[in-house]
Amino acid sequence: MDILGKWILAVAATSLICGVVRSLTPEGGCRRAVEVVCAFAVTAAMLSVTGKLTEAEIGRYVLRYSQEAQAAVEQGEQAAREQTRFIIEQRCETYIWDKAETLGVRLLDVRVTARWSQEGFWYPESCELRGDEDDRLSAAIRGELGITAENVSWGTTDEE
User: Fold this and answer.
1) pTM, 2 dp
2) Total structural domains within the chain
3) Distance in angstroms (rounded) separating the CA atoms of residues 131 and 157
4) Which of the listed residues 14, 46, 78 is the one where a domain comes to its end?
5) Final residue belonging to a domain, choices 55, 78, 101
6) What letter does residue 123 receive in the DSSP assignment?
7) Is there a single domain that holds both residue 50 and residue 94?
8) CATH number, domain at 91?
9) Residue ranges making up the domain that contains 70
10) Which of 1, 59, 62, 152 has the most beta carbons within 10 angstroms of its beta carbon?
11) Beta strands in the chain (DSSP E)
């Protein structure tokens, strides 16, 4: 384990031990003294690495961890975008199922595909329906979801 890993382990272990000792110490003057000692111990653990690293090593660690942090942020943003896309597609599909039920239209399957806009958000771009084709449902999909007529496709029901 490199120096930084050992340092993190030392700080974590010191904090854990201090937490246990503090929780076992009764209220009063004794507890306040233990808290002061624990604060010094954690501070010493945190400062213990400073004498062992050169400026170049610190710079490399900062660069490495900032790059890893940036990559983690980008992965998180991508995962959030994908989750948002999934939610939008699911909500649109639910809307279509509910609207079909209200209109008495028999559907066997509904698939909505969302697309990322240049403005930075997901929108329902197309849908594939399998069931009894219905102009009222198609109009509702166009009007409420904004999916154009050419992007609403109906499949046959004989594929059951």
Assistant:
1) 0.58
2) 2
3) 5
4) 78
5) 78
6) E
7) no
8) 3.30.300
9) 3-78
10) 152
11) 107-116, 122-131, 152-155
Residue of 144, 100, 98 whose CA lies nearest to 123: 144
Count other C-beta atoms under 10 Å from residue 116's C-beta: 13
Residue 142 confidence (pLDDT): 94
pLDDT at 72 over 60: yes
Q: How far is CA 24 from the centre of its chain?
A: 38
Could you tell me if 160 and 131 are in contact, meaning their C-beta atoms sit under 8 angstroms apart?
no
Instruction: Tell me phi and psi for residue 146, to 5 degrees.
Output: 75, 15
User: Buried (b) or exposed (e) across 41-57, using 16+ Cβ within 10 A?
Assistant: ebeebeeebeeeeeeee
Q: In what order do the strands lie in the sheet with 152-155?
A: 107-116, 122-131, 152-155
Q: Which residues pair with 115 in a beta bridge?
A: 123
Query: Domain check: are 74 and 105 in the same one?
Result: no
One domain for residues 92 and 132 = yes
Instruction: Check if the beta carbon of residue 121 is closer than 8 Å to that of residue 144.
Output: no
Q: Name the residue with higher pLDDT: 51 or 5.
A: 5
